[in-house]
Amino acid sequence: MDKNEAGWKQIEELAGERGIQSMKAAEEFSPRLARLAVEFGYGDVYASDALTLKQRSLITLSSLITQGDPGTGLSYHFRAALRIGVTKEEILELINHCTAYAGFPKCINALFIFKEAYETYEEENK
Length: 126
Known about the structure:
Keywords: Lyase. It holds the Pfam family CMD. The chain is mainly alpha-helical. The protein has two domains: 1-50, no CATH class; 51-126, AhpD-like (Up-down Bundle). The protein is built from six helices and no strands. It has helices spanning 3-29, 31-45, 53-67, 72-83, 88-102, 104-124. The chain is globular, with a radius of gyration of 14 Å. The N and C termini lie far apart (35 Å). The model has no long low-confidence stretch (mean pLDDT 95).
């Protein structure tokens, strides 16, 4: 399986149809950036067996929180984490843990992004 095919498979496993549609929207606007994300981000980095998908998800969330992601990526990855079995409590604890490294402003921002993402996830999965 080539990296493009592996990447699309990872996106589907991680984020389902919503993830596929998000990446297709990115691909329509910037085919090159989408290809890089699919082939490298998902087809290479996420495809390794050294970490579980749940571990990768927690690492990704931690990185996005500490960078102060303004919402789009963080919201996407919060919903993906919930989809693959990371619990609300685990995500809240991750946000709490990040305050020691990223500070309260970034983590409070992440908390409100998570609240919205969680409510959306719950509504879609009733």
